[in-house]
Design a protein that fits this description.
Pathway: Glycan metabolism; cellulose degradation. With 840 residues, this protein is α/β, with parallel strands linked by helices. Helices cover 22% and strands 25% of the residues. The strands form ten sheets. Strands 14, 15, 16, 18, 20, 21 and 23 form a seven-stranded antiparallel sheet that branches. Strands 11-27-26-25-12-13 form a six-stranded mixed sheet, with helices on both faces.
């Protein structure tokens, strides 16, 4: 349908109808106008799967590798294929818009949402993001690229002010968005929660109107993050077309009309915003196709998608260390041997927490995959957890009876400030937790949970209590725990990462105990923005027996390791440790060093220790010198176990490359002094990007080599590659062609990423030494040779000149180099480049 017809439909709408289109109708859908033939468009999270309309307890979905894992393949074809599959998955959930990809930068290793983004490098993130968007939209499903922009932390994300100079904003943080907009034309962009240089992202006209629309020429839909609209007139004028979710908080017809009458907003602005929504609807469905009922969400386990998840997960795994060729663990090598599988081996660390979490169709654990692979080989496999990793105490879901004597809790809803005459009572509620994520949208009410608990064993029990607002828990009418004030980190509470005190209570298995929890909404704001959580109820009661809580699991693991020929330790972060809503607490593996202690103890008694680390970004590696092999497996999706075992055994030759630097010390990271900023400033929380353009390897290029364990782009293989003579030619369009022969000189098939970096031949302190400008993944049989050819765009040589407000190439000598990683030069050529200016 041409835009003229969109204009025609727009002309039939009343002002109130136009306004109604500018906010969601429900949590995940836009507003339909059936009488005008305008359907509702359903959206869904998230970057590594199409979850559907329920954050918890919905139908299952395919869980793909996290973006950090996908980027580690350095394979744009895999990114495109995953995009296509995600589009197909969205359609099984009745959705036509996926809230993905996330293309923010790994500014600091402790960023809680790093796993959800591709890389510390904007060029790599932009290329992988572009391919994902192309694949997704080829299936008729819109990509909503997020979060625009400078959303590199979770601490105080609703109101933190990111102070970013123009040059790093352009060269680092806007660049992946620019590449995706210009190369893939996404149909939607989602604004961030935070402020950028004093303006919230949803009302930042400089970013939306001047850069995104005017300079980049983009014509898609701008939507807010969920609850990320912060004004009426300002957001409309800045260019945020759609407030999400619905029902609206800021765009009630009366409020918008009042803004028009007062001169704060024009009717022309309303028309422009409504036109963008209609264009979006038209791209996805077309006018006149309004369903009376939303299609049922389906859990379709597509075998092609499962195979792709397994392939992508394995190809994203990075081999970081392989002393004395400890790996691969072939069937011949392990026949008749004893293997200890430890740590997270019986858990599938498929994804991170928050928007990226889905309920996978299934989960393949490393333990199950290992047993499957070696089932007929006489391999003696044992298992021990070896380390406590729980962040929160488990919920009370068993051994509890409600007021009717049936399993579960009884809960009562009361009008705020009342303690009698509940307005609603429900029996059989199955857990000691309640929040927005459980489907409870409970504004300005109070909740009481009531149940009778018979402990399964006589012991001391640990209890924890957390809540968005004030909360108390009583046992037999005695106060056990109290939270007097609002939660200090509302988003952390929502996504399961708030540290809370524990108390102990001795309980007799022969008795029943009445447990009662009373929760109220947050108190009026104490200076911390609650955003869409204002007035919401949220509470969580955790409980664990001391027998389980205090168990010595390390000794058991150590004994198994003593008798083993090989010990394989699965370390990492489950979704409670690496999650949206809260930045990581420590550079070390959780919990309280227990995983590091496990590795160190096992390495002291077993000659062959292999660590497989499943995290979304870099962690400390204090035991690196004591182990024989290390794999960085990231968060590889529902086939995690198969992907990991494929690489361990050589079924898949490792070919991943690091998408972020692994430093030795957190103190050496570029944003160390400015992450997550100052949260107690009188004017509100603030984070200063004072490292400028020196993010990731751009920073470490200026430090001694021994500050880094493993550089950006690093990755070993079970084979070896050699490179021939480098050729560099200038093309007629001003770009450069790079050609280099690559040979597989090892014994097995393998793949490697050929990386091209460029920089001035003479180091200029204000500029990075080099930056990634092209890459190509090449797969070769043993003995095979191929010539890899790449094109480097002329603008990749430019920097952003804040005085000229343009991209500028300083004339002079530049190096174009082929690298194995950011710290391993293969060959380079110097070229003379004339000065040049590019329009923004």
């Amino acid at each position: 349908m041409p835009s003229s017809l969109v204009d025609s439909v727009l002309s039939t709408l009343s002002l109130k109808e136009k306004i109604s289109l500018l906010a969601g109708g429900e949590v995940w859908s836009t507003v339909p106008l059936p009488g005008k033939g305008i359907p509702s468009i359903k959206t869904t999270d998230g970057p590594n799967g199409a979850r559907g309309s329920k954050i918890k307890d919905g139908v299952s979905a395919a869980c793909f590798p996290a973006a950090c894992s996908v980027a580690s393949t350095f394979d744009v074809d895999i990114a495109r294929r995953i995009g296509e599959a995600l589009g197909e998955e969205c359609l099984t959930k009745g959705a036509k818009c996926l809230l993905a990809p996330t293309v923010c930068i790994h500014r600091h290793p402790l960023g809680g949402r790093n796993f959800e983004s591709f890389s510390e490098d904007p060029f790599l993130g932009g290329q992988m993001g572009s391919s994902t968007v192309v694949g997704l939209q080829s299936r008729g499903v819109a990509a909503a690229v997020k979060h625009f922009v400078a959303n590199e932390q979770e601490t105080r994300r609703l109101d933190v002010n990111a102070i970013v100079a123009e040059r790093p904003l352009r060269e680092v943080y806007l660049k992946p968005f620019e590449l995706i907009v210009k190369n893939a034309n996404p149909w939607a962009v989602m604004t961030a929660y935070n402020k950028i240089n004093g303006e919230h992202a949803d009302s930042n006209a400089y970013l939306i109107q001047k850069i995104l629309r005017a300079e980049w020429g983009w014509k898609g839909l701008v939507m807010s993050d969920w609850g990320g609209t912060n004004s009426t007139a300002e957001a409309l004028n800045a260019g945020t077309d759609l407030e999400m979710p619905g029902p609206t908080r800021w765009r009630q017809p009366g409020d918008v009309i009042a803004a028009i009458e007062s001169g704060k907003v024009t009717v022309e602005t309303i028309d422009a915003r409504a036109c963008q929504v209609l264009e979006f609807v038209n791209r996805l469905k077309g006018f006149g196709h309004h369903e009376q009922h939303e299609p049922e969400e389906e859990a379709i386990n597509n075998p092609n998608h499962a195979a792709l998840i397994r392939e992508a997960g394995s190809k994203g795994i990075v081999l970081l260390k392989n002393h004395n060729s400890c790996l691969p663990l072939t069937k011949e090598k392990l026949r008749g041997r004893k293997i200890a599988l430890l740590g997270y081996a019986k858990e599938c660390l498929a994804h991170g927490g928050g928007s990226a979490s889905v309920m996978p169709h299934y989960r393949v654990t490393p333990y199950d995959a290992f047993c499957e692979h070696f089932k007929d080989c006489g391999v003696d496999i044992s298992y021990s957890k070896g380390a406590h990793t729980f962040r929160q105490l488990p919920l009370l879901v068993n051994n509890i009876r409600d007021a009717t004597g049936e399993p579960g809790f009884t809960y009562h809803f009361y009008q705020s400030g009342q303690s009698t005459s509940p307005i609603k009572t429900v029996h059989g509620y199955d857990k000691s937790e309640m929040s927005l994520l459980d489907g409870h949208v409970l504004e300005n009410v109070e909740v009481e949970l009531l149940g009778r608990f018979r402990p399964p064993e006589t012991a001391t029990y640990y209890f924890t209590l957390s809540s968005l607002g004030p909360c108390q828990v009583y046992v037999n009418d005695e106060v056990l725990l109290t939270q007097k004030n609002n939660c200090r980190d509302a988003m952390g509470f929502l996504f399961g990462g708030v540290p809370v005190p524990r108390t102990k209570l001795f309980m007799d298995a022969s008795r029943e105990y009445e447990i009662r929890v009373r929760a109220t909404p947050p108190l009026p704001s104490d200076g911390q923005g609650l955003g869409f959580l204002q007035g919401q109820i949220g509470m969580r009661l955790g409980c664990m027996s001391s027998v389980e809580h205090d168990a010595d699991v390390l000794s058991d693991a150590t004994e198994l390791a003593k008798a083993a020929d090989y010990s394989i330790i699965l370390t990492g972060h489950d979704p409670s440790w690496e999650t949206e809503g809260q930045d990581r607490l420590s550079f070390s593996l959780p919990k309280e060093g227990s995983q590091d202690q496990l590795v160190e103890a096992v390495a002291a008694v077993c000659p062959n220790v292999i660590v497989v680390n499943c995290t979304g970004s870099a962690v400390a590696l204090p035991w690196l010198d004591d182990i024989q092999a290390l794999l960085q497996a990231w968060l590889p999706g529902q086939e995690a176990g198969h992907s990991i075992v494929d690489v361990l055994t050589g079924v898949q030759n490792p070919e991943g490359h690091l998408t972020c630097t692994f430093p030795k010390r957190l103190e050496d990271c570029p944003a160390f002094e400015n992450f997550p900023g100052q949260t107690d400033l009188e004017g509100g929380p603030e984070v200063r990007y004072e490292e400028g353009v020196f993010v990731g390897y751009r920073h470490f290029d200026r430090l001694p080599l021994d500050t880094v364990h493993f550089p950006f782009g690093f990755g070993l293989s079970y084979t070896s590659f050699s490179f021939g003579d480098l050729e560099v030619d200038e093309l007629r369009n001003g770009n450069y062609r790079v050609k280099i022969p690559v040979s597989n000189v090892g014994d097995v098939k393998g793949a490697t990423a050929v990386q091209v970096y460029i920089g001035q031949s003479t180091i200029v302190p204000a500029n990075p030494v080099k930056a990634l400008a092209a890459f190509s993944k090449v797969s070769l049989e043993s003995g095979q040779v191929t010539v890899v050819e790449m094109e480097v765009q002329a603008r990749e040589f430019a920097f952003w000149d804040e005085r000229m407000h343009a991209w500028v190439i300083e004339g002079g000598e530049y190096d174009i180099g082929v690298y194995r990683s950011a710290a391993d030069l293969v060959a380079k050529k110097s070229v003379a480049i004339n000065p040049r200016v590019f329009a923004p």
